[in-house]
């Protein structure tokens, strides 16, 4: 029990330090000066997601007809938790008990290769650009600008959804000690197949796989919540990455539109 309490304290300190570092990077990246409402906490995932999996999988589909009605925070919280949320803290305590030295964070709702957690989710809304922070279950404000139109290309209907999720793969986070050891072993035992180019290609392929898992999780959650959603890769990549001020190791892999389903043609009129 003492080990669990100590790990919990260490986790809280580490979480605060990482959040402050992220906040500093966002401030520098977007040249943010307004200190008001920097972080918007979202509610815990609701029971609305407690639906039969078979029924959700049977009815899941891509929907391109949206209403521009804003999504309330509880609904957005469910969607983001499904995409990349931290599991229940009580479950984390059970899993961590007796495992001294293991990071105490509860795990994520979606898996990633080598536990990289390299996918960063930006939330584009009418009131600005936000960054999802799974560890704190909330949104970090980036900039007061609406760039949802950059998440679509030659698709006027795709400018209507109130929320555009932008999945950014941060390759810097894939160069962990564990993955480097695995890559070195692969190159040592079969260097003809696993050279530097092949390893880099494998790393990028894994990041695409990781994003794909999140896309499916959001699609299922949207169906459970009665929402429309569609994943897309057709968008002006360079313009979108410039608007998000991404670094050389950060790349937009996919975009996903989420919102209420259109009920009539009037929903398509701003």
From TrEMBL:
Domain of life, per lineage: Bacteria
GO MF term (any one): oxidoreductase activity
Pfam families noted in UniProt: Nitroreductase
Record-annotated Nitroreductase domain positions: 58-260
Transmembrane portions of the chain: none
Protein name listed in UniProt: Nitroreductase domain-containing protein
Organism expressing this protein natively: Sutterella parvirubra YIT 11816
């Amino acid at each position: 029990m003492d080990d669990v309490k100590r790990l919990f304290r260490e986790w809280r300190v580490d979480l605060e330090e990482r959040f402050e570092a992220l906040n500093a990077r966002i401030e520098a990246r977007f040249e943010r000066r307004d200190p008001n409402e920097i972080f918007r906490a979202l509610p815990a995932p609701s029971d609305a997601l407690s639906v039969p999996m078979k029924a959700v999988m049977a009815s899941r589909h891509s929907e391109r007809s949206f209403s521009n009605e804003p999504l309330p925070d509880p609904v957005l919280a469910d969607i983001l938790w499904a995409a990349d949320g931290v599991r229940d803290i009580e479950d984390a305590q059970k899993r961590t008990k007796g495992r001294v030295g293991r990071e105490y964070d509860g795990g994520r709702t979606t898996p990633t290769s080598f536990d990289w957690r390299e996918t960063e989710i930006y939330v584009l809304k009418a009131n600005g650009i936000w960054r999802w922070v799974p560890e704190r279950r909330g949104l970090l404000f980036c900039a007061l600008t609406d760039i949802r139109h950059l998440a679509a290309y030659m698709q006027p209907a795709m400018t209507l959804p109130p929320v555009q999720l932008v999945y950014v793969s941060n390759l810097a986070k894939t160069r962990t000690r564990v993955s480097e050891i695995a890559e070195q072993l692969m190159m040592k035992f079969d260097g003809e197949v696993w050279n530097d180019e092949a390893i880099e290609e494998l790393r990028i392929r894994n990041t695409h796989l990781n994003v794909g898992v999140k896309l499916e999780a959001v699609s299922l959650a949207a169906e459970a919540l009665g929402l429309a959603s569609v994943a897309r890769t057709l968008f002006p990549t360079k313009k979108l990455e410039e608007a998000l001020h991404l670094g050389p190791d950060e790349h937009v892999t996919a975009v996903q539109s989420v919102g209420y389903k259109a009920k009539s043609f009037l929903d398509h009129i701003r």
